[in-house]
Amino acid sequence: MCPLPLLAASVAASRIPLRLFGRELATAAAMSAAGRLKTVDYEVFGRVQGVCFRMYTEGEAKKIGVVGWVKNTSKGTVTGQVQGPEEKVDSMMTWLCKVGSPSSRIDRTNFSNEKFISKLDYSDFSIRY
Description:
five-stranded mixed beta sheet
């Protein structure tokens, strides 16, 4: 399922200082800006094979600045994994839901295993075969 915009919640949260023992640690925005690392697996359904979807996915991932991989499946979908700073992974998730390659038709995108990680498992984004 595609991510929902959380702009209102993030704007409200960014104004609330976090305190511990009377000391202001940081705002939610500052914590977000620190760039927690996130990973997510995805599968894209629709007309996504034979339309350069993997090539465009690799290009978008490199443009955004995330790492991971993408590949075709035997059931006609495209699957993969994206890792990077939370806000960049979220941008890539939106792209996988709504944009894709120019000739593609995205019917739905499923995300799974979404979690925060301490380090990246990949050094770049690649097409797997």
